[in-house]
Amino acid sequence: MNQYVFDNADPRNRTRFDSLAVFDPDSHAALAAAGVGPGWKCWEIGCGDGGIGRWLADRVGPGGSVLATDIDTRWLSGDGPVLTVREHDVVRDEPPATDFDLIHARLVLIHLPQRHAVVDRLVSSLRPGGKLVLEEFDLEHPLTTRSTTHRAAFDAVHLPFLRFLRARGVGLDWARSLAEEFVDRGLRDVDVRTRTVLWRGGADEIRLYRVNVEQAAEHLLADGVSTRQLTDFYALLDNPEFTAWSHPLVSVSGTRPV
Ligand SMILES: C[S@@+](CC[C@H](N)C(=O)[O-])C[C@H]1O[C@@H](n2cnc3c(N)ncnc32)[C@H](O)[C@@H]1O
Fold first, then answer.
1. In sequence order, what are the residues at sequence separation of 6 or more whose Cβ sits closer than 8 angstroms to the Cβ of residue 106?
2. How does residue 38 score in pLDDT terms, banded at 50, 70 and 90?
3. Which residues contact 49 (CB under 8 A, 6 or more apart)?
4. Cβ(230)–Cβ(176) under 8 Å?
5. Domain definitions of the chain by residue range
6. In this protein, which residues make up the domain named Methyltransferase type (predicted)?
7. How confident is the model at residue 42 (pLDDT cuts 50, 70, 90)?
8. What's the 6 CA to ligand 1 centre distance in angstroms?
9. What is the CATH number of domain 13-255?
10. Position with higher pLDDT, 103 vs 245
C-alpha cells in the first residue's frame, strides 16, 4: 500500500492541481533550461492531472516520447502518439527504462519516506548525459505575512498540519538538501531555482492551503485543533486583506555524467 497522504479519489484534488498550475511557468523554465527539446525521451513521475506531461509532449514533438506515471491516473486523460499514461508506483515498481533523456517530478518525492533510494533509482534510469529535474516545496519556510493576528490564526492550523505531514513521512526540509543530494550522486551542472508567489485571501491559488487542511481535518481535530480554529483559518483564506507567501518551490536540475 502506498503512503501518499492525500486521497486521490477526493474531488477536491481538482483544486490542488489548479492551484499548483500557478507554478507551471517556473517548471517549464526549469525544464527548458535543462534543454528538453525535439526527440527527447522523458519520464514525468507523479504526473497528477498531466499538465506538465502535456507540455513536455508538445516540446519533444512526434519524434520524442513522454511517459507520464502516477499511482492513480484517474485525473489524467490524453494518451496520444507522444504521451503515454501508465499507473506506476515509483517506490515499489521497477523503473520503466534506463535510457531516459529527462526525468522530472514535481512535489512527489517530498511525500515518499523512501525518497533517498528513489533518487538513486532515478539517476540509474537516465542515459549518460541525461537530466534529472526535481521540484519540491520548502515546507519549513515560515509563513511571511505582516499581520500578527493573521499569523496567529494561520499558524494555529498550519503548524499542526505540518506536524501531521512530518508524522506521515513527508520531508518538510527535503527541498533544502536537494541540490546536495544531486551533488552526492555525482550529477553535474547542478542548477537551483526558487520561486515564491504572494497569495491574497480569496484568490484561486490560495485554496491549496484550504484543500490540504480539509483533507487532513480529522487528524488535526484529533491533534487538538478546534473546529473554531479551522473555521477562522478558512475565513482568513477568503479575506482579501490577508496576504501570504506561497511555499517556495525549489527546482533543481543536474546531468548524469557521460
Ligand atoms: C502533490 S501531487 C503533484 C502532482 C503534479 N506532479 C503537480 O505538480 O501538479 C503528488 C502526486 O504524486 C503522486 N504520487 C504519490 N505517491 C506516488 C508514488 N509512490 N509513485 C508515483 N506517484 C505518486 C500522487 O498520486 C499525486 O498525483
1. 20, 23, 27, 46, 52, 134, 135, 136, 249
2. very high
3. 14, 17, 75, 76
4. no
5. 13-255
6. 44-132
7. very high
8. 9
9. 3.40.50.150
10. 103
Atom number in ligand 1 closest to CA 44: 6
Pocket (CB within 6 angstroms of ligand 1): 2, 4, 8, 17, 20, 45-48, 70-72, 89-91, 106-108, 111-112
Distance 70 CA to ligand 1 centre (A): 6
Strand (E) or helix (H) holding 145: none
Residue 236 pLDDT grade (very low, low, confident, very high; cuts 50, 70, 90): very high
Q: Which residue has the cell 505531514?
A: 165
Centre of ligand 1 to C-alpha 137, Å, is: 13
Alpha carbon separation from 9 to 13, 150, 161, 225 (Å, rounded): 8, 32, 21, 25
Continuous segment of H or E residues that includes residue 15: helix 13-20
